[in-house]
Amino acid sequence: xxxxxxxxxxxxxxxxxxxxxxxxxxxxxxxxxxxxxxxxxxxxxxxxxxxxxxxxxxxxxxxxxxxxxxxxxxxxxxxxxxxxxxxxxxxxxxxxxxxxxxxxxxxxxxxxxxxxxxxxxxxxxxxxxxxxxxxxxxxxxxxxxxxxxxxxxxxxxxxxxx
Length: 162
Description:
alpha+beta; two-stranded antiparallel ribbon
């Protein structure tokens, strides 16, 4: 369902503009609520002026899956920030959890792959993220942080609204 909707929205991307901060407020609120008992510190730095050519639902699905994953593995902190760099807009989500073994970093994008079978889930979240990113021609990069945890970076080159 989600991928069909994203595919339809991806074809109409040029006609839709989404305010990043407005679109992500309910997603952030929902994820914070889901992990309230863990007392995680969510640090958010989103550019209030950022407007991207992307369906709001697709953006929410994309970032919601990434935030949920970060919060699931975070020890104390999850960070969500946007910035405009030389290659366009970048959205970064970081956590301070255990990260992913280097040899398995490429596997997290595969449908049905769940790195920890003891955790609930079906291994679809990050493959959905990958599929949506592909539909919008976004660059998606996973890397372990030197200080611990995982950094996910989405490059939205050419996605800025007028």
